[in-house]
Amino acid sequence: MNSFWSILSLSIYTAIFSTLLILPFSIAAAWLLARKKFVGKSFLEATIQLPLILPPVVTGYFLLFVLGPKGTIGQYFNAIHIQIAFTWFATVLASAVVSLPLVVRTIRVAISSVDPRLEETARTLGASEWHIFRSITLPLAYQGVIAGSILAFARSLGEFGATIVFAGNIPNQSQTIPLAIFQYINQPGGIEKAQPLVIAAILFSYLSMFISEWALRKVDHVEH
Question: How many angstroms separate the CA atoms of 12 and 23, rounded?
Fold first, then answer.
């Protein structure tokens, strides 16, 4: 049972931190894609959405290629004795990358539902873009931010492929619920040990989807 609670708490902490890690960038990217026209917009959108269609194992390999001990960037961290791959932070980072497309897409829909005439009126009154975003756009799109955050949390809880490649399956460090289940079912008598984690994963998924759908219905209500 102690193992169950340690795995569950590690999974929850990882999901929370990965969601917080990508939320500021997701909001900024969603606003840019929803409200601005610029060169490279299609490329930015495609890049953000790429983890949604790539196999998670490929995403994990890319992270390892870039941030691993001998990676293009990771080698410089390794030179000053900072390791990213195969740590708890690698688990957070892997979950964040695979969750990013869901968050950006959800928040973008919410921002697009905000009447642009409200923002234009504020501009004519001399309000800055930051003030408009902070006082008009974001408050009216907050349900989308909530929905996107919940989706990121749920996706992080279920992340397997990118995590096992980039962070490994290390107990008390990177062994989240899916990785622990995978390990248990490959051990004699492990099916019974995996059952509480399976039930917890299902319950968290149902709860996350319920809250997310509630928030999205609020967005649809505002839009119509």
Answer: 16
Whether 221 has a pLDDT exceeding 60, the answer reads no
Report the alpha-carbon distance of residue 112 to residue 144 in Å, rounded.
10
pLDDT in tens, 151-163: 999 999 999 999 9
Closest CA to 31 of 101, 108, 105, 106: 108
Q: How far apart, in whole angstroms, are the C-alpha atoms of residue 189 and residue 186?
A: 9
Residue 95's Cβ-side half-sphere holds a number of Cα atoms within 13 Å equal to: 36
Q: What is the CATH number of the domain that holds 87?
A: 1.10.3720.10
What's the domain count of the chain? 1
* Full domain range(s) for residue 73: 2-223
Question: Distance between CA 6 and CA 29 in Å, rounded?
Answer: 34
pTM value? Answer: 0.89
CA 26, CA 20: separation in Å to the nearest integer? 10
Sequence-ordered strand ranges (E) for 136-216: none
Rounded to whole angstroms, the Cα distance separating 105 from 215 reads: 14
Angle between helices 2-35 and 177-185 in degrees, nearest 10: 130
